Q: What sequence folds into this?
């Protein structure tokens, strides 16, 4: 987790890209960035990307080029998403079982990662993986915080200690972070993928890819009191029966203080057509550009309470 001593807080935070470079260029242009010598820059502002650059979309190479050029030339910062972490694990062979990888090459995992493998050469993939390993898992800039899925302070600190001890997403790190019995596994799952809650027996919801899910992502930043399974889901689960079921089961939210610095996240495939803060100081910037939604940004100038008027979106090309 990196900190900045800058006093100027003029940041444009951008949500999950998933290989949608045309939408990214359009959004950057609207935000006042222009390309010079292969790098998009703004005279007074900096971008922060919330992770998930790869998979699903048609222009993964272009997205990586744009984002990396901005990060490496100081016009942007970025945090790791779960898709970057998954890619590292997918392509790293296990030390204990020859021919096996830290992320199984199951049909579902291959399908999720297929666009990236199809679009990048083997050399480009190795280069991308090396860059992914350099990404921070979270940013704390004092007046704002950025993480892909969940601001879990204890989980973030545990991951940082492990990265320092074992090396950035090394095999020693992955040995632990992909083992369900290890505390590092839970930390990575929570920080990069968000806490989840199992649904009551017999219930399921469908995600944007049409898959049945027997677990829901939760509004981890809120206390669960007075919520149903439907209203505690993130995004809200439209389900008449779940709307009447009080919460039950084992789960651990991370309630975020109302006076804490604003936190920006991605990951959650929000389905609103008009973005808005989740609370006064929490904003999700993933509005499903990979599924006929929008690429979303928030223009942050140091405010402690987030404003609906600061969101900027461009529609997915699939909508046109």
A:
């Amino acid at each position: 987790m990196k900190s900045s001593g800058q006093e100027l807080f003029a940041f444009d935070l951008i949500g999950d890209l998933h290989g949608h470079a045309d939408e990214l260029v359009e959004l950057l242009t609207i935000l006042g960035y222009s390309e010079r010598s292969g790098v998009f820059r703004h005279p007074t502002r900096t971008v922060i990307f919330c992770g998930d650059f790869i998979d699903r979309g048609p222009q993964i190479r272009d997205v990586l080029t744009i984002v990396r050029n901005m990060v490496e030339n100081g016009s942007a910062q970025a945090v790791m998403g779960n898709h970057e972490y998954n890619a590292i694990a997918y392509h790293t062979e296990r030390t204990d079982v020859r021919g096996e990888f830290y992320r199984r090459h199951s049909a579902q995992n291959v399908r999720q990662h297929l666009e990236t493998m199809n679009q990048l050469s083997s050399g480009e993939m190795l280069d991308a993986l090396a860059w992914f390993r350099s990404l921070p898992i979270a940013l704390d800039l004092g007046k704002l915080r950025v993480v892909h899925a969940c601001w879990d302070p204890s989980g973030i600190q545990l991951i940082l200690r492990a990265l320092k001890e074992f090396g950035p997403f090394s095999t020693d790190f992955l040995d632990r972070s992909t083992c369900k019995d290890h505390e590092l596994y839970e930390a990575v799952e929570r920080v990069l993928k968000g806490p989840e809650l199992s649904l009551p027996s017999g219930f399921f919801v469908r995600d944007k890819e049409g898959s049945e899910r027997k677990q829901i992502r939760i509004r981890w930043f809120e206390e669960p009191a007075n919520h149903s399974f439907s209203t505690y889901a993130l995004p809200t689960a439209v389900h008449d029966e779940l709307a009447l079921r009080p919460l039950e089961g084992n789960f651990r939210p991370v309630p975020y203080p109302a006076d804490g610095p604003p936190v920006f996240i991605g990951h959650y495939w929000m389905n609103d057509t008009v973005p808005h803060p989740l609370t006064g100081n929490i904003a999700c910037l993933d509005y499903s550009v990979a599924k006929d939604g929008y690429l979303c940004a928030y223009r942050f100038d140091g405010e402690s309470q987030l404003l609906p008027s600061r969101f900027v979106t461009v529609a997915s090309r699939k909508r046109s």
